[in-house]
Amino acid sequence: MFPLAIDPIVFSIGSLPVHWYGLILGLGALVGLFLAIYEGKRFGIPQEFFMDMLLIGVPSSIISARIYYVAFSWDQYKNNLMDVFKIWNGGIAIYGALIGAVICAIIFYRYKGYPFWRIIDICAPGLLAGQMIGRWGNFVNQEAYGGVVEESFLRNKLHLPDFIVNQMYIGDAFHHPTFLYESLWSLLGIALLLVLRRQKFVRAGEIFLSYFIWYSIGRFFIEALRTDSLGFNGSSGLATLMNKLWTPMTWFGFKQGYLDPAYGNIRISQLLALLIIIAAIVYIIIRRTTGPTKAHYSDPIVCSKPIAADTVVPESAVNTPKKATQDGQPEQAQPVAEDKKEQ
Question: Are residues 248 and 194 in contact, defined by beta-carbon separation less than 8 angstroms?
Answer without folding.
Answer: no
